[in-house]
Amino acid sequence: MLTLSLVWGLLAFVGMLVGFFPCLGSLNWLNIPFSAVGLIVSIVAVANSKEPQKGGGIAGIVLCAAAVLLGFLRLVVGGGVL
């Protein structure tokens, strides 16, 4: 489950980076909910994990949180949110 968190976080972060390109900012309308679900999955995975190394899950949390926050910031600055 921790690997899923890391992969989900990477996909969310890459989607957020693509949303920073001009004319592709509306992609963040899809990426923010995707990242929010990934954030929830990552938190649950880290909380329920019995493994001593939780680095993948923590990285998933950080990447998904960054994707949500920066994606929302991009929408606000770009005029996508009124």
Please characterize this protein's 3D structure.
- 77% of the residues lie in helices and 0% in strands.
- By secondary structure, it is an all-alpha fold.
- It has one domain (2-54, 64-77).
- The model has no long low-confidence stretch (mean pLDDT 92).
State the end-to-end distance. Answer: 37 Å
List low-pLDDT spans. Answer: none
How many distinct folded domains? 1
Please give the radius of gyration in angstroms. Answer: 13 Å
Number of helix segments? 3
Helix content: over 70%
Helix/strand class: mainly alpha
**% residues in beta strands:** under 5%
For the largest beta-sheet, the strand count, sense and barrel status come to:
none
Instruction: Give the total of beta strands.
Output: 0
Chain-averaged pLDDT: 92
- Overall spatial form: elongated
SSE string, helices as H and strands as E? HHH
